[in-house]
Design a protein that fits this description.
alpha/beta
Length: about 300
Amino acid sequence: MSTRELVVLGTASQVPTRHRNQNGYLLRWDGEGILFDPGEGTQRQMLRAGVAATDITRICVTHFHGDHSLGLPGVIQRLSLDKVSHPVHAHFPASGAHYFERMRHATAFYEQADLREHPIAEDGPIAGGKVALEARRLSHPVEAFGYRLVEPDGRTMLPDKLREHGITGPDVGKLQREGRLGDVGLEDVSELRRGQRFAFVMDTRLCDAVYALSENADMLVIEATFLAEDTRLARDFGHLTAQQAARVAAESGVRQLVLTHFSQRYPDPARFEEEAKAEFDGEIVVAEDLERVQVPKRRSSPAA
């Protein structure tokens, strides 16, 4: 059975608190384990959350501020220490390649893992396969990219319709592959199954890329560093407020909104939910360290 969930490893912004580690998120998506923005302390948070180095198949870094990347040295070395046998693909802004190189070789260790670097220089697809991974440039004082996973739409076979047309055994697979079996088309015995979408948007001002990444996302993980009372600070430092993040979700057809990356200036996380509820009537999660958030079940069709 496939597993699609977000394991929250850290939710603080620049400064960790007693209750919040710096950033870190592992997205379990069927056989993939995508580690986003491993900040300082990620390796220990992985241990506490029950995440093994062998779970990681990709590392996606939005930008090279410390709270989004200082956990890289420990995680990279752990891949070799635990003898991870599969390739691990690392995506990050090309303009920060020198930072990645320094952190990859921050100290002496016996490198055994197969870590493959994929610097990002422009918007567009960055990985294919069963799901497509895309990146788009955000608006932050240093170059930053957001990420989006898109699963292709498919079809769910309808047993009653198959029986009605007398289609059984290997003929079912043939119909799926070729789209037609005699007078029966695939659309006659199946229904559309909408592919799921996941978006990861960290440090940024409002910009077109935020909306493009968020469009029709089943789960949107997005920074909410500030509250609306500090909108000017958010703009000046290249961040979003909870209000802005919720409006993006409402205007983009998002199903589940996961707010994170909170400034230490706000001791009460309930205020982020209150602010978001005024703008967005879908599911809202104010992320907490070590929380597991399930990706919503798929919608039945692209029009749903």
